[in-house]
């Protein structure tokens, strides 16, 4: 598409996409404080993390397809405005039910990250542009827990959200200035776009496998990270929110590894990389189980865990998107809908499992579900033709 890009567009899109995605994770380091404010127990605190993921899942299904129907620039600006308003409303909530609903809205609007990436690809198909925006999203995920924890410790979690809300509104204004108009490329209805989604799982066996395997480790990823935030602030470790959030930086190792996972998948196959990634996840979970109160042990376990998850994710998502170049947006929507659905279940179960069975229960659950994903990968690896099989 021959549109002259503003020199600030890529920088803006990277920061804006990362900030939008970060809104899903900002509260995780301060879950105990939020639970105390709302007067709910820790088993219900997992609902807070799950609600943003549920919202993100709904946004992928219902909001992301609008980018193929309406002007992306207009949609992105409106999503930032609503996202800022929802985050501000969350600071005023005293009712747990209203707070959970507000967090769902935050998750829905956080899909702006996907819209910005899609806009970058539509305006410039250069890998450098799309790659930079994707790195911004990943950085947002990694830094969210640390930034959220640090600001919340200094000023309280409500003031932290007020700062983020103001930032979202500022991004809407800057976006209006630097983003070019981007009308839909094809005339199609919202109903037509949504109508194509359900049949994809039946048509592509590899998509079904990708959904099951990816869902398994994202369930584990979400469950473990929510439980880890609770575990690090409980006795005998008793870390403050800022230090707790620093554990999120361990994911940098996984982010760096993801650069090579795709190339490795081209050389030895997606399933081999996925299997290696899941084995790293299992190794990390074992270390987390064996050293529940050691900061060094927990850090090493998290690094291995994140290395495995990021590596497997790159290979898994790549093979799903290669199934049909003409349906990549739809394939991505179906994959991410199921992916975040499993993640929401993981976050939802984290508080309950941690309260009932402690850190050991979390690690055992993570080991079982990850092993299930590994078994699915191993069984399907026996059929080499499965990678290209489709149902006509």
Q: What's the CATH architecture name of the largest domain? A: Up-down Bundle
What proportion of the residues form beta strands (DSSP E)?
Answer: under 5%
- Report the structural category: mainly alpha
**The CATH homology group name of the largest domain:** MFS general substrate transporter like domains
CATH topology of the largest domain: Growth Hormone, Chain: A
**Can you count the helices?**
16
Q: How many separate domains make up the residues? A: 2
- What is the average of the pLDDT values? 84
Series of secondary-structure elements, N-terminal to C-terminal: HHHHHHHHHHHHHHHH
Report Rg.
Answer: 20 Å
From the N-terminal CA to the C-terminal CA, the straight-line distance is: 32 Å
| Largest sheet features | none
Coarse morphology: globular
Low-confidence stretches: 384-392
What does this structure look like?
The chain is mainly α and 392 residues long. It has 2 domains: 1-192, MFS general substrate transporter like domains (Growth Hormone, Chain: A), CATH 1.20.1250.20; 196-392, MFS general substrate transporter like domains (Growth Hormone, Chain: A, Up-down Bundle). Helix content is 78%, strand content 0%. The chain contains 16 helices and no strands. It has helices spanning 9-22, 31-38, 42-62, 72-92, 96-109, 112-123, 127-155, 157-178, 190-195, 200-203, 205-233, 241-246, 251-268, 270-290, 295-321, 328-380. Helix 4 (72-92) runs antiparallel to helix 8 (157-178). The longest helix is centred in the last third of the chain and has 53 residues, at 328-380. The radius of gyration is 20 Å and the shape is globular. The relative contact order is 0.14. The model is unreliable at 384-392 (pLDDT under 50).
